[in-house]
Amino acid sequence: MAKKKKISFDITVYDSLNELKESDRKLLGLAVEARKNAYAPYSKFNVGAAVLLENGEVEIGSNQENASYPSGLCAERVAIFHAGAKFPGVPVKTIAITAASEDYEVTVPAAPCGNCRQAIFEYEFKQKSPIRLLLMGASGSIVECASLEDILPLGFNNTYLK
Ligand code: THU
To answer: Is the pTM of this model over 0.85?
Structure first.
C-alpha cells in the first residue's frame, strides 16, 4: 500500500547580522569580503562564500564567470573545492554564502544552485557530519540551515554506485 511521507526541515531566520553569534557574523563578513572579488562581468551578480573547517581554517571563494558561460564556476564550489584541495579530509563545519547584484538590491538570502548543493552534499556525505549553511543577500534577513541534506532531499550519493 502506497504511503505518503512528508519531508520537512527547520530553518532559523535572523532579521539582522546583530542577532548572529560572533563567529557566524565573522564568517559572513569574510564571505562579503570574498564577494568583492567575484568576476561576474556577464551576470553582474556577485557571490561570495566562506568555508569554515573543523581545524579553524577558513577558505573563501567567489563566482568566476567566463565568456563561454558554462565554463564559469559558482562561489560555493570555488570555496569548497579550494578547501578540499588545501585541507583534504578536514571536515567542513559551516559555509556562509552571500549574493549582491550590481543592478539591484538583493534583499533575500542567497540560495545555492542545484549543482552547488550536489557538490557540497558530496563532502557532507563523505565526512558523515552536517555542513551548516548561512545564507544572506546584500541586505535583509539571514537564513541558517543545519545541514546541506535538508535542502537536497533524496540526494544522490556514492551508495548508488555500489
Ligand atoms: N552563482 C553562484 O556563484 N552561486 C550560486 O549558487 C548561484 C549562482 C553565480 C553563477 C553566476 O556567475 C552568477 O551567479 C549568475 O548565475
So the answer is: yes
